[in-house]
Structures are given as structure tokens and as C-alpha cells.
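Whiteboard transcription, Tuesday session. T.W. wrote the C-alpha cells on the left side:
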């Protein structure tokens, strides 16, 4: 485990490339309630701590070492990951790159959809744009390189494949992943208590819906 500065007002704790290790480290740091830490953010193989001021960098670094050096006490109730069911319409109107993915994988488009919806995913981290979930668990057969030319604007709710991962664009934004469908769910909403729908450690299951069902979900 390595603790290094990130600029003058943040720290990065580097851990193994394991979701369990990342989440365990994050929970230890949250439980330590370190003075001067304004936010804690997990990533693929690290946890970032953002500080209230640069003057706290050295003291926080030492506090992090102490917190992570302690053995974690067994808690009464284990933290259970949430399961989030995500409806997806894979119709051609929304699946701009489904044919490309199918050709790359040597599968029929319907088989790509079936395999994508049948898999079980885990949220590795949230970022890129507010609320964007990076999901591990994509079947290896569906892994497809990102587009050579990213789109200037990807519609909100687009479900896409980028390399060995799948993800969902919460907002209209640039993007280079292969779009295979769209969900009517609102992934990021500042009016909610938790603006982002997903958080690291959540489990995700996609299920297919028809075009008319998509419209009813949006109402």
C-alpha cells in the first residue's frame, strides 16, 4: 500500500486492483473520520482523499497511515451491496454501435444483447462525468475496443461497451465507447438526496425492454 500526494490538497492511497480491497480501504478511512478530509473517492486501484486546505496534507498523511495500520474490528452487520435493476432498450434507434460490436465479436446482434443482459456486473468506480458507473463483469466475448473517433455528443442514458467494461452515460457528453442501447433511468439528479444513482460496490443487472416500455418509463 502506498500513500502519495495528489497536488497540494489531496492524497492517493494505492492498493491492489481489487474492488474488495478498494472498498475495505475506503471504509477504514471513512470510519477513521480524519480531521481535514472533505471527501473520499474510490477508483479502480486507489482511494483519493480530498482535503480542506494544503496545510493539512502532512498531518492527514500520517493519520491515514495510522488508520490503515489498525486492524479492522468486526462489525455487527456486514455492509451488503445494493442490487440495481437497469431497464435497457436495445432497439436500433438507441443501439448506434450494436452492429459494430456484433461484427467484432463474431455474434449476431441478438446474441450480443442476450449476453450483455444476462451478465452480472459490479460498479468499480464512478466518474468521468457525474454519475458515470464503470462496470466490471462484461463477458470477455463482448469486449470491444473503443471507437477510433469519439462522438462529440452521446445521449444521456446510453449503455455502452469500452474495452472489457460496460458503462452508462448519465448526461449528454462526448464519448468514445460503443453504444448498444439506452436506459430511461436518470442516473444523475441534483434534486435527489444522493445525486448519483450508483456508488462503488453496487451490483447491477440489465434487463431488456421494448420501445413502448421505454417511453412509459420516461413519463
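and on the right, the sequence the group agreed on:
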Amino acid at each position: 500500500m502506498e500513500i502519495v500526494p495528489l497536488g497540494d490538497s489531496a492524497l492517493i492511497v494505492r492498493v491492489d486492483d481489487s474492488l474488495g480491497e478498494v472498498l475495505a480501504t475506503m471504509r477504514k478511512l471513512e470510519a477513521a473520520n480524519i480531521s481535514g478530509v472533505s471527501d473520499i473517492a474510490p477508483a479502480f486501484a486507489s482511494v483519493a482523499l480530498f482535503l480542506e486546505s494544503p496545510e493539512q496534507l502532512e498531518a492527514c498523511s500520517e493519520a491515514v497511515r495510522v488508520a490503515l495500520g489498525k486492524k479492522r474490528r468486526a462489525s455487527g452487520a456486514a455492509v451488503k451491496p445494493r442490487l440495481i435493476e437497469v431497464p435497457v432498450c436495445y432497439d436500433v434507434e438507441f443501439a448506434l454501435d450494436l452492429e459494430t460490436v456484433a461484427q467484432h465479436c463474431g455474434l449476431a446482434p441478438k446474441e450480443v444483447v442476450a449476453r450483455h443482459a444476462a451478465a452480472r456486473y459490479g460498479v468499480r468506480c464512478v466518474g468521468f462525468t457525474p454519475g458515470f458507473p464503470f462496470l466490471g463483469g462484461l463477458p470477455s466475448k463482448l469486449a470491444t475496443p473503443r471507437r477510433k473517433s469519439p462522438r462529440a455528443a452521446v445521449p444521456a442514458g446510453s449503455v455502452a461497451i469500452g474495452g472489457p467494461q460496460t458503462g452508462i452515460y448519465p448526461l449528454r457528453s462526448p464519448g468514445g465507447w460503443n453504444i448498444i442501447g439506452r436506459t430511461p433511468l436518470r442516473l444523475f439528479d441534483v434534486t435527489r438526496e444522493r445525486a448519483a444513482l450508483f456508488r462503488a460496490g453496487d451490483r447491477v443487472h440489465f434487463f431488456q425492454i421494448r420501445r413502448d416500455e421505454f417511453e412509459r418509463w420516461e413519463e
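Someone added at the bottom: The radius of gyration is 19 Å.
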